[in-house]
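Example S7 (structure tokens).
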């Protein structure tokens, strides 16, 4: 029989009593409700949502577990994930996050490079997941350009068209997709295990000052995509890039592809939030086409 409340379901999972009255709201994202639950052992960080959230929570749990297996950057340990009468939930170990320091930024750069050393024969992942609240298709592809074109940029462009994006933005975006091979004429990325949504709000430090990453959108892709996103909204200092580069140097032309990779996230932000992101996406598309002489 399905448990009636999340507290009962969690107690069953952790094998320790949980008082429903101990629950208190905490910050932790704009998509799910987030709570701290007290147990007789350790507190839990719990995301909750409707039954429709169950699949995205399961994907997040699988992504965290995949990252944890690299033994590189720390991620929250998955405690429980499931559904009850009250709704869907994802319970993680509670980590008290602190402010980054130069030392923690440097260590994050080194550890992320080691995480990216976890590679695969193909690009994608064994299940689709989400980027924010947007479905993110991850069907396997032999070639990175194919994956980037079909599973990332064209996917977001189709969503943008449905959200009312200007026809010229969508059309020029499709033209860009036809020309993607030009950005990879002398560069063949390996499929690295990516966090997938690595902006400044998705990392912090634990009680010992060591880096922690969370809220992933995991897949195997070009590691430059993770690095590009760290530059999109800031939140990563010079020490991060220096130690990443010294641990596993990037291709010399990596900077020329940053706009290409960040276009995916800007289009996604338009699809989620609208506003000025359409104009920003259009500017990025124009800049990329100009680099190709179009």
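Recovered sequence:
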């Amino acid at each position: 029989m399905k448990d009636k409340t999340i507290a009962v379901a969690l107690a069953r999972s952790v094998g320790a009593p949980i008082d429903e009255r101990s629950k208190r709201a905490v910050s932790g994202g704009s998509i799910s409700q987030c709570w701290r639950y007290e147990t007789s052992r350790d507190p839990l960080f719990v995301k909750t949502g409707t039954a429709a959230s169950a699949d995205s929570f399961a994907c997040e749990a699988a992504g965290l577990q995949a990252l944890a297996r690299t033994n590189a950057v720390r991620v929250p340990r998955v405690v429980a994930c499931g559904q009850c009468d009250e709704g869907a939930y994802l319970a993680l170990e509670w980590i008290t996050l602190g402010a980054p320091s130069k030392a923690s930024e440097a260590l994050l750069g080194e550890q992320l490079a080691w995480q990216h050393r976890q590679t695969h024969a193909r690009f994608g992942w064994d299940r689709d997941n989400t980027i924010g609240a947007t479905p993110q298709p991850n069907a396997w592809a032999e070639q990175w350009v194919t994956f980037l074109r079909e599973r990332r940029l064209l996917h977001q462009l189709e969503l943008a068209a449905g959200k009312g994006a200007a026809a010229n933005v969508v059309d020029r975006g499709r033209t860009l997709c036809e020309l993607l091979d030009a950005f990879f004429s002398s560069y063949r990325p390996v499929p690295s295990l990516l966090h997938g949504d690595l902006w400044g709000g998705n990392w912090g430090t634990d009680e010992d000052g060591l880096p922690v990453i969370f809220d992933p959108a995991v897949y195997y892709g070009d590691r430059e995509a993770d690095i590009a996103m760290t530059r999109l909204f800031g939140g990563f200092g010079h020490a991060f890039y220096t130690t990443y580069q010294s641990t596993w140097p990037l291709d010399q032309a990596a900077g020329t592809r940053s706009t290409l990779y960040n276009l995916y996230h800007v289009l996604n932000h338009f699809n989620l939030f609208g506003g000025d992101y359409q104009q920003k996406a259009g500017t990025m598309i124009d800049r990329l086409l100009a680099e190709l002489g179009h």
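Notes on this example. The two ends are 61 Å apart (CA to CA).
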